[in-house]
Amino acid sequence: PFDVLVVGGGPAGASAAVYAARKGLRTGVLAERFGGQVADTVGIENFISVQYTEGPKLVNALEAHVRQYEVDIMNNQRATKLSKSEQVELELANGAVLKSKTLILAPGARWREMNVPGEQEYRGKGVAYCPHCDGPLFKGKKVAVIGGGNSGIEAAIDLAGIVEHVTVLEFAAELRADAVLVKKAHSMGNITIIAEAETTEVLGDGNRVTGLNYKDRASGETHKVELAGIFVQIGLVPNTEWLRGALELSPRGEIIVDERGQTSLPGVFAAGDATTVPYKQIVIAMGSGANASLGAFDYLIRH
Ligand code: FAD
């Protein structure tokens, strides 16, 4: 059995594995796809001390760092069930069962997509999901935010300080964001909010986004907006469906952790975007992976 088994090969899981291995613990990493969301990222400008890097390059560096230690990397493997008696038992999609004294869950999250024509084609070429990451790329330009929930309105307020103009498109008739955020957005001069607007297509010139089409759901008419960027803010979904019933999740499905990354199940820790950590970023995921790993070490020396 492992001392520490990590589920997830993104920045949180990689960091947890390095910290565990450096304690001399028997460490394994299970990943459906090593690299996680970073593998889908084009430019990264906020990984502190590295002014610019690219997703695949950072994934290679993560893997090389983990491989520097005696870590058992099991890539292209999916965990499907977690149970705990004396040890943690993890069932995989291929039927195998792995046993470990402690577990670190870092299965990450996925952005909900609009599923409209052009979205995939222009991903990273104007279609973005993270205002903290990509906002500065649109300095002085026009952008849209899709979604009028808290994350959408927060993104609009954030972007309005950088870009020329923000159009918020909300599908429902009413914004779901907190009133205080909506009030702030309305006070900002360069934010237009359009409700009952269904985005139907991302438009581009072959290289980059040039605009979008949306349908006014009240009148049925289609309108075109010219812009350079589209921030999709319709939800970040944690990859925790398979953990329901095994440990405590928040109403949004995030794994509830304490300040040491400990979950409701003793000996099971969690880190990164799949948890209740409020902000989801690479440097935060790495920090929380290290934190959860030290939490697991602390647990092991007491049991
Ligand atoms: P993830 O990166 O999501 O990794 C999860 C890992 O778990 C993967 O290896 C996955 O295959 C695995 N996994 C999931 N479920 C299972 C299972 N059941 N069994 C086995 N393995 C499983 N952040 C920044 O700081 N700067 C940026 O510029 C930036 N740009 C971004 C651009 C895009 C397009 C996206 C999508 C995100 C971006 N982010 C950026 C956010 C950042 O990528 C995430 O915060 C970070 O990757 C989270 O790390 P994580 O390890 O928690 O999860």
TrEMBL record:
<keyword id="KW-0520">NAD</keyword>
<feature type="domain" description="FAD/NAD(P)-binding">
    <location>
        <begin position="2"/>
        <end position="289"/>
    </location>
</feature>
<keyword id="KW-0274">FAD</keyword>
<keyword id="KW-0676">Redox-active center</keyword>
<protein>
    <recommendedName>
        <fullName>Alkyl hydroperoxide reductase subunit F</fullName>
    </recommendedName>
</protein>
<keyword id="KW-1015">Disulfide bond</keyword>
<keyword id="KW-0560">Oxidoreductase</keyword>
<comment type="similarity">
    <text>Belongs to the class-II pyridine nucleotide-disulfide oxidoreductase family.</text>
</comment>
<comment type="subunit">
    <text>Homodimer.</text>
</comment>
<keyword id="KW-0285">Flavoprotein</keyword>
<comment type="function">
    <text>Serves to protect the cell against DNA damage by alkyl hydroperoxides. It can use either NADH or NADPH as electron donor for direct reduction of redox dyes or of alkyl hydroperoxides when combined with the AhpC protein.</text>
</comment>
